[in-house]
């Protein structure tokens, strides 16, 4: 007996008018590829395997910016990419805020990130310094 774990989301391309997508608690990683979903405004990827290793999260965020241009609500809680004090005791609020600036730099149309509304100040900071705010773990 063989078990196959299918992590393909290719079937989503038939739902081009999809507006909300919840992909929580899967084994999705930075190699996640979504089809173009121009109407998608809400995406939750909580508790997956998304991290900031080797620029791959940058690639994922660039991919999301391209294929889901209407995205306004994104949640990445429970992933290593999201430095949350509840998940990792070594992380603090400053780490989380740097993560927010980086994500907002890449996805500037977001209104909510994780559980928090995006503020005007965060948006301004993301424009100025967001590209330099990637949270990385030293080897």
Automatic annotation (TrEMBL):
Q: Which InterPro entries match?
A: LRMDA (IPR043313), LRR_dom_sf (IPR032675)
Which GO biological process entries does UniProt record here?
melanocyte differentiation
Which PANTHER family does this one have?
Answer: LEUCINE-RICH MELANOCYTE DIFFERENTIATION-ASSOCIATED PROTEIN
**Name of the molecule in the record:** LRMDA protein
Q: State the encoding gene.
A: Lrmda
